[in-house]
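As described in the Methods, two query proteins were run sequentially through the folding procedure within a single session, without resetting any intermediate state between them. The first query and its resulting structure tokens are shown here.
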Amino acid sequence: MNIATAVEKSRSPALRLVSTKDLSRNDWLNVRKGGIGSSDAAAAVGLNPYQSQLELWMIKTSRDAKLPKVDPNDETSPMYWGSLLEPIVAAHYTKRTGNKVRRINSVLQHPDSDRRWMLANLDYVIVNGGDAQILECKTAGEFGARLWKDGVPEYVQLQVQHQLAVTNKIAADVCVLICGQEIRVHRIERDDALINRLIELEQKFWMYVETDTPPPADGSESAATALKCLYPSDSGNTLDFVGDTEMSSTFSDLVAIRADIEAREKLEAELKQRIQQRMGDASRAKFGTGTVSWKRSKDGLILDVIALMKDQPALLSTYPLIRAGTRRFLINT
């Protein structure tokens, strides 16, 4: 028995919280709300490029009714194809490595009583993989493949380290299918220093959930979506922040940054126009550090709605569609 295996055996195994074999998707989602799962780990610590802490908090506190949701049967979504291709990726992992895998069919829970909020759903466990005993399967399309060019993306590494923390295992393999035609296998070793820091930050996020306190917005598109869903309407009230030093400083910084952006956008437009003016009717221009192109796109065909409504105004009452109003954020100084 090697040292790593001996260390692993000295730790308590994960608890099986609930079987997922006959669990409906809605019930499974409700179970996940009871803790931080491995796929939540990066978002919980603010390092998921697709989901903010605020959006994750809304989900965990059951405020997610108005959040956009991915239909698991939508054939245009990466989630659909990821689920469909997962067993194929696992089969090719076995073919590539010779390691056999099997499903767990359970939501796992950290064995320590003070970390029971740490949950994990494993894609597969590796039966004969030596140190690596967890298999995480991923698929990456044309856009997602860019995140894998230097190895396993940070948010996936955090997902796997969370799994290793819950299960007390020492290593995992990540098998990714790139653009539907290339299989890559990456080994992730347990990093106890990283896991300790991850647990510390996840625990801080879980306190937001337990105290029903929203975490700060981070400027991401996900946080913007969350705020729109949290506060879709205004009450007509006016808040006085004149004596609030922190909010007054935030407002001053926002005004200054907007002025700087406006100045930079004007400069950008001027520099672009200088190049366009020198190019004239040329399609491309080369420089010592790069190139630019200035080409006419193909003509497109669209519906002239204004002319249509002028000729047939009755269509509006026959096919009405109410567009919900949205809140506009305007600055006055």
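Immediately afterward, the second query was submitted; its sequence and tokens are:
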Amino acid sequence: MGDSSGSVSIDIETISLSGKEHIIHTSCGSVSVAVLGDQDKPALVTYPDLALNHMSCFQGLFFCPEASSLLLHNFCIYHICPPGHQVGNHLGAAAISSDIPVPSVDDLADQVADIVDYFGLDAVMCMGVTAGAYILTLFATKYRERVIGLILVSPLCKAPSWTEWLYNKFMSNLLYFYGMCGLMKDCLLQRYFSKEVRGSDVVPESEIVQACRSLLDERQSTNVSRFLQAINGQVCRRHDITDGLKKLQCRTLIFVGEDSPFHSEAIHMTTELDRRYSALVEVQACGSMVTEEQPHAMLIPMEYFLMGYGLYRPCCLSGSPRSPLSPSCISPELLTPESMGLKLKPIKTRVPLQV
């Protein structure tokens, strides 16, 4: 493990499918990082959306056998949790003191850099969901040489619109006065999932929504409010990073559910990226959190994306009925940047035209 001045790690003796947790003290406060896999492998850094941690945001993807084998065969996973969002009630999961300033989005991006330095990582692959995708994209624009690729799910790149700001302000007030109440959970679930899985008066919620609703009970409302203020507050809200997108030096693969509240934002981001090195995959009948609602829809596009780096899934699983791919059976023209996303049901993929 590398070292970084001002950084100290406390290892929690909890090793499971969720990884081994490290509490790292950075220049912007303490943060939990769950490490899963062989640290001699290349690094994949993840960052979840608002009010989530790696277990509630990436569990569906990593519990999908084909996707898990693809990612764990090629990477060591570093799951970063927003401050105060880690799993369980041990060190750091309590409410963060009001005396500690609310971090800005730039602080959170710099915190990612501190974590990368602490573990002695040169350059990393990044995977983020919505607010987490924004933090990792901002990290990539500030530290371009530290990022080799971005896998973004329903990402944000612009400053909040007035509509989003007012809605998030409403959620901030809910958190302040009522905590993680039922209405607050409903607001968050609308952010994450499509209407189909959220259910209705006659159709019950799906199991993934029920599980997420239960996991939200573990969140400290003050900690969620701090993260919400970082991306939506009057003083330190997120800023527009559109101008920095074309300067990125890495390939980018974007997933977005067609029913996501941030669908138009993902489309905008795709038009601003260098179209030679980016691709958009739109997943039908899906909300923002594709990693949980339709994780299998991510598999084949990720396989093609990672093949551009010379990475692949183990041959022992190449006969999977969901993804019968192996490097030897893929046409060379499909490995071009313009074909990193595939037109495959239930995925509708937008492939940029050659310029």
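Residues 9-161+240-350 form a domain with the Rossmann fold fold (CATH 3.40.50.1820). We note this only descriptively and draw no conclusion about the first query from it.
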